[in-house]
Amino acid sequence: MANLAKRPLEGKIALVAGATRGAGRGIAVELGAAGATVYCTGRTTRERQSEYRRPETIEETAELVTAAGGEGVAVALDHLVPDAVAVLVERIRIERGRLDILVNDIWGGELLAEWDKPVWEHDLEKGLRMLRLAIDTHLITAHYALKLMVERPGGLLVEVTDGTAEYNAGHYRLSPFYDLCKTAVTRLAWAHGKDLEKHGCTSVSITPGWLRSEMMLDIYEVTEANWRDAIARQPHFCISETPRFIGRAVAALAADPDRARFNGQSLSSGGLARVFEFDDVDGSRPDCWRYLKEVQETGKPADATGYR
Length: 308
What we know:
By secondary structure, this protein is of the alpha/beta class.
């Protein structure tokens, strides 16, 4: 029984779409730590980089999943290519016969976003590319993968975005393009939930807080080991969290036999930490979205006391 408690997702098959780095990698690793087999997709491999020109690779993510205790399977894939997604899902069907968890974390828009620009000033090609990466990829993946998931009850779809529904409803997110990307994913999860509940499956959207992704650490010229040095430059960075925190949120949700109670809802890593009582890797429990509302946006001095 103790072993089952430590590996509650033993025998489960997961697909984490967009797992090369950031939240996707953190989710994949924590699903592996809970015992799942995780197909990890992305465009950057040891032989080929995406336009991000980042060093992280999909093979590294799969290896981290295996090292955590699961089975990681690296798949180089562009989710804007429907035929390629269809081939992957058919591969999962042949190799595993099931799909229990689908995490849509595909994004890739950071280099395309132009901050605080109205639609007539924002580069049109970049804006439309952002929408394709954020929305088309998720719909293409859901089209093929959910067909396999609904063959048995209990499946879980997780749509990853930035910002809770409540936060985004009252905040303008950078530009009309970026704003639509982040709010549309939340609505997708709600809409999928209407269809999936008929098959005994669950759909949610989830957001991390201020994520200490590989890119964010580079921006502040720190590493995970000395990330607190960045607080001198940006005091509110004190509320930041690792990608493993949202990973633990997804793993806890996937292991919850009563997860259907969350169907269609907008969730956050900090909110689920309160429900399932898990911590980030440093033993803290950051609650970013409450912090932003109660501390940063009210002009109070940066202080994470009581928020992590």
